[in-house]
Structures are given as C-alpha cells and as structure tokens.
Amino acid sequence: MNVSPSSREVPPGEMDKMLDFRTVHEATAGPRWQALFAHHWPAYEQWYLSEGERERPGYLACYNALRRHMPELLDTYRALCDLAGGGDLAARFLSLYQPPPYITGCSQAVLASPDSTVLARNYDYPPELCEGTILYTHWNARRVIAMTDCLWGVLDGMNDAGLAVSLAFGGRKSVGQGFGAPIILRYLLEFCDSVPEAAEVLARIPTHMAYNITVADSAGRYVTAMIGPDRRASIRRVPVATNHQKKIEWYAHALASETLIRERQLSILVDDEATTEERLIAAFASPPLFRHDYRRGLGTVYTAVYRPAAGRAQFHWPGLTLDLGFDHFPEERITVRYGVRGLHSG
Amino acid sequence: MSQITTIADVRRHFLNNKEPIYFISATNFNLLGIGDWVGNFRHINYIDCFEGQQRNVFVPKEKFPRDFESIEDINNYLLEHKEVIDFIQSRAQGENAGVAAFLMFDEHTEEVCQQLGLQVAFPPAALRSRMDNKIETVRIGNKAGVPSVPNVLAKVGSYQELCEVSRELGDDLVVQTAFGDSGHTTFFISSEDDYYKHAEEIEAEAEVKIMKRINCRGSAIEACATRCGTVVGPLMTELVGFKTLTPYKGGWCGNEMFAGAFDQSIRDKAREYTFQFGEALREEGYRGYFELDFLIDMDNGEVYLGELNPRVTGASSLTNVAAFAHSDIPLFLFHLLEFSDVDFDLDINEINERWAHPESVDSWSQLVIKHTDESVDLLTQAPRTGVWKMAADGSIGYHHYNYHPHAAEDESEGFFLRISGAGDFRYEGADLGILITRGRLMDDDFQLNARAKAWIDGIRGQYAGQSLQDPVVEEVAVSHAVGGGNFKIL
Q1: Does the first or last residue of chain B, that is N or C, have fewer Cβ atoms within 10 Å of its Cβ?
Q2: Buried b vs exposed e over A149-180: b needs ≥16 C-beta within 10 Å?
Q3: What pairing do the DSSP bridges indicate for beta strands B431-438 and A234-236?
C-alpha cells in the first residue's frame, strides 16, 4: 500500500502545474459524461490496476456491494456502465467498491445561522490528480452540483433538496472492506434531503478508508461523520473537520498536512459570534487554511462554498470566482496554474 | 413433455431444447461437439481456442493475465465477470437463466450460480469433494465389491511408521494423498531416500493411501449414474508420463480408445466393476457423469480400482465422439437428462449391451501436449485450431478450420485444439494444445508409436517464442506481474 502523497518528488524548475476546471451540464448522463469517461479512463485504469487486477474485487462482488448498501443507485450505475462501454473493469472501477487506497487533504467548515447555512472547504491535493469537473446532473429526481472524483463520485457538492456535503481524508492508514467515500457522497446527494437522513446513511455504509464527511442542510442542521473501515462511525454535531479523527494517529501525515493548526483556526472562527460568511470564506484564502505545498501534493486546489438553501455554489481561486446555481450553470473552462510563487488563474 | 422411453425421444428432446445450457470452463475441450446435440448450448471459456470462429463459444473480451490457482478459480472468475453475467442474463427467461455444467466447481460457484439463476447440473460440491477423495474411493469400492490394489490407509509420521503399517505390501510402495492432480500427489517409494523427497507432503495428511507397487497399465472408463441405472462407456488406455508430452512424472497426457484395448475378460470386468461402482455412487447420493481409472496388473490380468473422478474429465472428449455415442447419444446427454426435470425410463441394460460390443467402438486417440522445458518465453506463433494433415515425410500442414474431431477423416489427419496462443507465456507445464486423431498412438507395449512422435514434433515445430531476456518481452512480463504505477495518476 502506498498512501504517501509525497512519493513523487517534483524537481525544482518543473514546479508549475496546470489544471483545467470545466463545468459540465448534462441532466441525463449521455455523450458529455461519456466524453469525460473517455478522457479520464486511461489514467484511472492505470491507477485502478496499480496493485494488480486481482487485488480489486470482481464485478459481481462490486454489484452485490452496491445492491446491498446503495440499491437506489443501481439504475444510475448501470446507465453509466453502459456509457462506459459495458466492460468489466470499468464497471468494477465505477462501483468504487474497494478501490486502491488513496488520500486527500482538505479543510471544511459549516457556518449556520437562522437565515443561511454555508458549507465551505479547501481541497488540498496534488492538482494533477484532480479531475477538475464540476458536474450538474438531474439523475434521480434531484438536481445535483458537485465536484467529481472517479467520474461520478463527489468530493463536495449539493442537491436541490438543500443538502451540502464535503469530504476530507481522516488521517488514518487503516484500509478495509467498503467503498471509496466519493460514491458515498454521491449517494447522499442523490437520495437524502436532510442531515438526519444523511447521518443514518453514513452510519451504515462501509468505507474502505478513514474519512471525515461534513454535511449541512438548508434548515441549518449539520454534522461531521468520522467514518473508517475498522470502527463504528462517529457522527457528531461538529461544524469543522480537517485530516484527523479525534486523536492523531498518523503523525507524519498530521505534521505534513498541518491538520491540527487548520482545525484550531476553523474552530476559533466558527465559535466566534463575530464571524460572518465573508470572514470565513476569506480565511480559506490565506494560511494556514490556504496551503502552497504543491511540491508535496498538499497544496490547495480550490475553495468551494455551498449555500444549500439558496441553491448556490461558488468556486474560488485567487483573483477568480465561479458562481454557479441550479438556475445558473454556464458551461465554462478555467485554467489554473499552481506554482511556487503562488496560484494564478486565467 | 410425456415420459421419454427411447433414445430417439432423448435426441429430439435435446435438439429442441430452448433452455440455455452452459459448459463453463477454461476451454471447451472436455465437451467438444456437444453443441451439435443440444439446442441453445453454449460454452463460456477463458481461452478462445478458436479465435472467434466458433459461434457457441463465448469468451469475455476484456481479460487480465492472472495466475489462477485452480479450474474452480477460473470458473469463479468467469461467473463474476460482467461480460459473462450480461451474456447469461441476456439469454435468461425471467428468473431462470438455465443450466450450468462445469469441469470443477466449489461452494462459491454454487452461491454465484444461485444468484444468477443458474441450476448446477451436478451433485453439490461438498458431495463431489467427498467422492473425489482417493481414500473414500477405496471404501466405496470395497463396499461395492470393486477391489483396489492391495493397500493400507493410514496416517504416516515417519519412514519407520510407513514401513510398519505397510509390511504386508512389500518394499516397493506407491503413496497417494487424498486429493491431487495427475502426477502431482502420487509418490513412488522404495527407499528411505525416496521417502524424504516427499516426507513433508505425506506427513501433512491425516491419512494416505499406501499401495503395493504393481506392474500395471493405466486405463480409464467413463460412465453416468442415472435413475434407470449406470450407463457405461468403453475402456480406454491412458498415456501416462511421456517426457515428450508432460514434465510431470506419472502425469496424464492422453488416451486411446479402440475396440481391442485390453482383452475381452479385462474389458468385461472393468465394465462390470464400473456398473457396480455407479450403483454404489447412487446409494451415496451421487448421480451423473463420472470416470474411473482402473489399474490393470500386467502380471496376472487383475483389474484394480485406481481413482474416481466424479465429473466430466479429459477423457470425455473421446468418450463423446466415438461411434457408439453417435449410434445412440453421447454419454454426456444421459447426464443432462438426469439433471433435467424430464421424466424418463430407458432400458439401460440394452444400451450397455450395445456399447460393450466391439463394433460399437471405433478407434480414437488424443495427445495433451504440454511445454516440457524449464524455459519461459513469450509465444509469437502458434498452430491454429482445425484439421492438420501429415505428409508422407512426417511433416504437418494446416488443412482447414473445423471445431469437431470428426473432421479429421483418416489417420493422416488430426484435429488440433490450440490452447496456448501467440501472446501467451510458455512455461514448464503449460498446455500447448490437444491433438485428437483417428487410430492409435501407442504400440502394444504402451510406447508412443512413430506417428505419435511425428505429430508431437510437428505440432511443437509450429510454435515459436521470444526469449524473456528481450527487453520488450521483459517489460510485458513485469507489467503483467505488477501492474502499472502505484498511485492515483490522472
């Protein structure tokens, strides 16, 4: 197993990395999703086979796991498998059941007030490993806007029932039987309306690694679920999550990702009655929350802000904001440059 | 359908069959040609021996090189493969996906079949596994009046113990473990040194079969236990341990079927024993296809029970193509009949009488050709499946495509089923292919005849490989072994 984000050192001089973000609007999965699959599949295939094909469960096991834990998702799954060519390996990959281990960085926080709920987060990860697709779908009688991972999984997103979700790595090395978290987040957005419903799902669906999942709804409810393959989910009314679960277990990762500092910063902010939405969002744009550590794959790739009650999603980069909503979702492409001297967009 | 009472009824029943029937295995070798008798019959295989030319063979397109541990492992891989599941479901009638037959399967296979709506046309894996136990075989045989080579069944912890328990058998011993493939778990022991070569495997067993070593010939006979009685096929000789065919000492490498295989009294005895054994199997709850090995003592003509394979086997390819099968029905159809819900009442004695007649048995042979060198290389060229023809000088050439051994019309022709193809690794023990031909391949002393040697040389000569030292080949090998990178890379 290799879950170290720093395994590939990038030599100085080749530090600048570029990532294209694209917004894709397709209510029913069709040619656009198919094109995304075709574009990303060669890289995903290589990753999926990285430990050998035999390490990944067979199609029937993947199908059975989905049928058992997320049966409502099967129709969508089948439709996407067909668009992906109907093959065996792609179908196994798309189930996200027992994928190779991987990790993310990330900070996330909820600011809930009687009139508005905001879920904001930074996604800290190697930019070259981020798909950069913001997908608008209307698959299961709910409109969903989400930053995708593994082609239909969700890193963060919201639905038109007023639920927003965000994912952060839980900072523990344990790997077990379960799903990659992005498909669990997809399931939440497709079939849950509220935080209590989401909490029930998070308590029962097995995950293959440790993740911290924060959910917030338009009624101002929120929880953070600390899930893992080796212990019962801890689901508490906590508005903040970074990359550890309760106590630190993986010291090297905790140090490299500065998870404690970021958690403290966020806790202070959300506990302070004087903190406004603007102040919270601004905090994500500067250290310690905004991170420039692209060399080790822990730099901030984007900031996402969801207002589930208003049905609005914003994506921020220094000097640039993308404003999206269920009624306003233009198809755009944004190139972001990640370098030693900072982050530029244009 | 009303009760089936004649062979003509059975033929018509299967020709009109609509329910999907599958043979799921690494290749379709064991049941070559059964599709000619059974409507809606399909093979689901891992290896496409026909390069897409055979309509009733389904092989998933997307496959990964794997080190399978067993045939069960291959079958389970196939049954969990999306293309296979899609194929089976596309042909299912509601919840009923049809009938599945296997060479090997286990409890996991049974679970998957149940989920897919496939009925397994064999007794449960647990029962098969009990029957397959060589020690259990001896006990069933004893009960049925079918003798085994003089033997002792015992736990052995040392050479001393082995000598003590087997004193009455003499110094020249053959020790077998309860389960094992041809040639892998049979140990010839006549000295302490011999013992130590295999001590670990022998001592790991709860009980082993210790036999007196006799001067014997191997033979095989296939049969099918049905509710109307046990149908018995002809006695075949076995090709065993030829170094030009197999790297395994004592390993099975082919069969010969011909009317005069062994003399009449031996054939009669073997058939009688097989019938008795089949009836005993039915009492144990087993039904359907099975194969018995008999060891014929060349010194005194005694017929001894060797082992039981409670399944279709490598000899089934011959049993089901010979004249008797075509004058009635192939033995495997009795098996399908037994596992169908059709009511039947057939006169099994009459069939057995007919099949015992020398005129019913025409002459067929097969060679299973493995890679016998220790070398490993990547095949760049392999002979195609179909009919090959041998010229007067012993050289061979491709004649035409066919899927059926019958297409080889006389002894100058052979039907070759290609197993390892270009792009496969050739390693010691790898199956290269199987040659089925009319006539005999051994002489009366059980040595390969000149025609057999020419065919073996001819087929081997059609293969070419590229050494693993080649950097390109090495890269392929390494990427097969370890996959690509080890981090999510986009």
Answers
A1: N
A2: bbbbbbbbbbbbbbbbbbbbbbbbeebeebbb
A3: unpaired
For residue B468, pLDDT over 90 is answered with: no
CB B416 within 8 A of CB B48: no
Dihedrals φ, ψ of A25, to 5°?
-110, 110
pLDDT digits (tens, 9 = 90+) for A104-138: 667 888 888 767 899 999 998 888 888 999 999 99
Distance from CA of A171 to the nearest CA of B (A): 17
Helix (H, G, I), strand (E, B) or coil at B442: strand
Q: Is A272 exposed, middle or buried (CB count within 10 Å of its CB: 0-12, 13-18, 19+)?
A: exposed
Residue-level length of chain B:
490
Residue A102 with chain B: CB contacts under 8 Å: 487-488
**Are residues B453 and B244 in contact, defined by beta-carbon separation less than 8 angstroms?**
yes
Question: Across the strands, what pairs with B21?
Answer: B41, B99
CA distance A50 to A82: 24
Cα(B117)–Cα(B100) distance, integer angstroms: 10
Query: Which amino acid is located at B23 in the chain?
Result: F
**Chains A–B, number of C-beta pairs less than 8 Å apart:** 82
- CA end-to-end span of chain A, whole Å? 37
* Three-class SS state of A128: helix
Do A52 and B482 make contact, defined as CB atoms within 8 angstroms? yes
DSSP symbols for A44-59:
HHHHHTTT-GGGSPPH
Residue with tokens 């058998």: B169
